[in-house]
Sequence to fold (248 residues):
Amino acid sequence: MALKLYQFAISHYCEKTRWAMEFKGLNYETVNLLPGQHVKTIRKLTGHASSVPVLDHDGRIVQGSARILDYLDEIFPERPLTPTNPDLRARALAWERRLDDEAGPAIRCYSYHHFLQRPKIVVPMLAAGTPFYNRILLSLAFSRVNEVMRKWMQINDKTADRSRQVMETLLTELAETYRQQPFLVSDRFSRADLTAAALFAPLFQPPEYPVPWPKPARIPKAIGAWLEQWQPQLQILENIYANNRRAT
Fold:
């Protein structure tokens, strides 16, 4: 049995997948790709879309974090992440879809809008886990990288502001829910909690995340002020992450 994860180390959707496999106690290999250069590799594996994460399990290819979680629970049923109760299952999947569709893109847009203005900080994060020369290549081509990423993800002042509002709405709702109950849909950890904490993880920078986080003084001022304001809500998710990130 061989599990191989094709990923961007910086991607919070890939962190969601890494966490799921480690939660189940699975051994896996990561193949770290450079954004942009990944397209050929991923299309060769999937035959179509070039998005990550992509899981290769002995030649069986699964693309997308939600589908990978489905697959892992089917093939490796120990320590399930999906509730068996139909109502709880539906609620967990609904939370996951909402977070994948809303939180993930919003966090990515808001963060990159500010970090792309600081090439020396963001280049090592984008190239994390890949050969050292990719940092040089990214630095040399950064103006083009910045242009492509902003166009692909529709990143600008207006979308970044809307993304911030989406993040704040979701953080408020998540915090209120966690103050009333230990987990989002039941009395046990599920894929809903994993998705919430994994997608917001770049904002509280856990040590398990395989990227070189910038020192606090190097974080863009706008993000730093926002993080300080929303620290109580983020702390709740950081606790979920810290308490459930590793298999026991």
Remarks:
- The first helix runs from residue 12 to 23.
- The chain is about 60% helix and 5% strand.
